């Protein structure tokens, strides 16, 4: 039985008892986690509860007296768990499927145990150096050039914010002091992620200065349209400064033509950022490395191991060939934090907004070592092959049609009926609790998405998702 601390029994008074309490509860928690992972399929992927149910089941204020781990773990099981959407479920196929894999789970626990904070090199050499090592390994796996400097942020949204800040720094170095000039213009495709527009809002570029370049029939940025928009803006006295290409768009996973976009960027001296948040990981496969052709001429790139590389949220890898510009954009060292910076003693606080930096690279390092490149390649290949197999089955059913090419592990398709019917099919399939699929809009029509990407997913899971969709179509209203 665990005994909670109290005002007369604070941890410092009996540190050994405090740690013993932890040891017992942590073993229990690890047993719970293993049990969970073993039987994760027994849970409905999406919880069945009403908004506010969890809030109403919990006390409205925190306890004055500490409670035992047993009580806390019991409530975790009985109250919190039923409100969890199981992103670690092999049949979670909504948005982009992902995985908190076991080596990374262990690393997260160790990272919290150390609680080391990499403000600058001296505050945690391990954080500063392992981040460079792990991101160097990932860069090699993806076939990116050696001159790409890597840094970890929490999300792709924040990585792209930093990319666009670099672009502004390159075009308008006085913006740091004076604020953004009003005539900077950013280009990205109409299919790009909302984080790009959000970054423009945050950096004072303004939504009206974000050009959504039209896409072609396969949802890829049209380079001729990009060129035309730039010419028009130049003629109007505006200053094009940045273009963001997407490798693996959020809706359909289309791939913008990076190399021709790089030509345009070079012609107009634009910062080229590649948002490869989901699909960049596919470049670990030699047969898919072509998706990053042209990246050697880009200024920056983001890829999210927390999407398709079995890393629990959060871990976004940001790479730039111009770390000096990133540093110029963000270094602002208070006297109390001053410390030397050289290539072997990086102060990561100078390369972005956050000062504090948790030990995220530990989980990447653990999992890259545990799985190795070949196992990860095989899992990615399976996911891509199953997406293709699913697409063939969809094509063979005359009631359905594919809505986009499927270059990776996501298939977009629709029932040949109304938007309302497609939404009803989605709702019905998800209501079984056996699967979680999502939808998007392509060419103005609602389409269903099956996103394969969880480490535990098998072909049978994918096939079951398809059966549930077909059954829902059979019984549609
Ligand atoms: N970029 C793309 C292409 C995405 O698909 C997503 C999310 O799905 C993001 C950026 C945002 O990712 P994050 O949640 O890491 O900010």
Task: Set out the fold topology.
Layout: H1 15-38, H2 53-57, H3 69-80, E1 92-93, H4 102-114, H5 125-142, E2 149-153, H6 156-171, H7 175-178, E3 184-189, H8 194-202, E4 210-213, H9 223-235, E5 239-246, H10 258-268, E6 271-275, E7 300-303, H11 305-308, E8 316-320, H12 323-330, H13 361-396, E9 400-402, E10 410-415, H14 419-431, E11 436-442, E12 445-451, H15 459-474
Parallel strand pairs: 1-11, 3-4, 3-5, 5-6, 6-7
Antiparallel strand pairs: 2-8, 7-8, 9-10, 10-12, 11-12
The chain binds pyridoxal-5'-phosphate.
Verbal overview:
This protein has helices at 15-38, 53-57, 69-80, 102-114, 125-142, 156-171, 175-178, 194-202, 223-235, 258-268, 305-308, 323-330, 361-396, 419-431, 459-474; strands at residues 92-93, 149-153, 184-189, 210-213, 239-246, 271-275, 300-303, 316-320, 400-402, 410-415, 436-442, 445-451. The chain has three domains: 11-73, dopa decarboxylase, N-terminal domain; 117-358, Aspartate Aminotransferase, domain 2 (3-Layer(aba) Sandwich); 371-474, Aspartate Aminotransferase, domain 1. It is built from 15 helices and twelve strands. The radius of gyration is 24 Å and the shape is globular. It is an alpha/beta fold. The strands form two sheets. A seven-stranded mixed beta sheet has the order 2-8-7-6-5-3-4, sandwiched between helices. A five-stranded mixed beta sheet has the order 1-11-12-10-9. Bound molecules: pyridoxal-5'-phosphate. Residues 96, 155-157, 193, 195, 246, 248-250, 275, 277-278, 304, 316 line the site of pyridoxal-5'-phosphate (PLP).
